[in-house]
Amino acid sequence: MFATTKSMKSMDSAPPAVSLSSDVSIESDTSAAISAAQKQKELEQFPRTKLAHLPTPLEYCPRLSKALNGVHIYIKRDDCTGLATGGNKARKLEWLMAEAIEQGADYVMTQGATQSNHCRQTAAAAAKLGLKCHILLEERVKGDADYNENGNVMLDDLFGASREKRGPNLDMAAELEAVAEEYRKKGHKVYVIPGGGSNPTGALGYVNCAYELVQQIEELGISVDHICHATGSTGTQAGLVTGLKACGSTIPLLGYGVRFAKDIQESKVFTLAKATAEKIGMPDCVDASDVVVDSEYVGPGYGTPAEGTIEAIRIFAELEGLLLDPVYSAKGAAGLIDYCRKGNFKPGENVVFLHTGGAVALHGYLQYFQK
What we know:
Radius of gyration: 20 Å
Distance between the termini: 31 Å
Strand content: 5-15%
Number of strands: 10
Largest sheet: 6 strands, mixed
Shape: globular
Structural class: alpha/beta
Number of helices: 12
């Protein structure tokens, strides 16, 4: 069931239209939705190229909700953005690739871990727009043959990207800039995209997502108690918190960290959120207290699934037919599941989980799913 319009509210599997436990009033949601619609138009000042299938659905998950103690779970399906199997990077790339084209680039370059969803979608966007793509893949995780050649890596090649490998613990931004400079000396116009597409331009994609989501919540006629998601390179969370605050929404946002400790991740997100708020002309809309991260679900480290990660993948697949990835979305989902079990999210509350996509990476982690 895709719950995106008022006509969906009467369907039997949907929860009550209003969560009585919520502190967020329908009136404030309505005001935020009106503001969000207006502010979406203001984003038209920035160059953008259409790459994603938007708006993505906001889907109620009845079986998952029942299994998680009656917390009403909605999934914002950003795994359905369309570009190269979908995922959150498509939103960012709409603005980044437009900027690359505006600057006359013939090459885009970016970097990420071996099974980078961002690199896969960047390669696809470049192919679609007729640009060349070169990527640096960092060996953050010692993987087997599947990890190093299957999943996202195979798709990088199919989309025509050239690639280089780098060892762990390097300054990947500096490595990328050095390679870009080599190509510039050969006469190419190179547009460099940071890891994860996470800069103020890329974060516009999730400012827009926040506006979109606030309007969908209003159309559905519910009040939402929490929004949560996996947070890594910071662009998704920074864009979301900026967009929510810019349109006056009071819904709390929580990022489940997938790599860095809580204090480090919160600082990184806030820094980017401030720059993004400045870009959209609302420099004072985000406060440090608006940025909240829980990094208790990272597990053994970035890119290495914990027991809860694998459990989350199986629960979402078996109860709702939804595929998560072992690096990002499943660690966020592990946090969501644990919060519901512990009572952090209470029965009857409405919780939106933003699904950032990435199921392609499952093919690089076959060893975790062999029976």
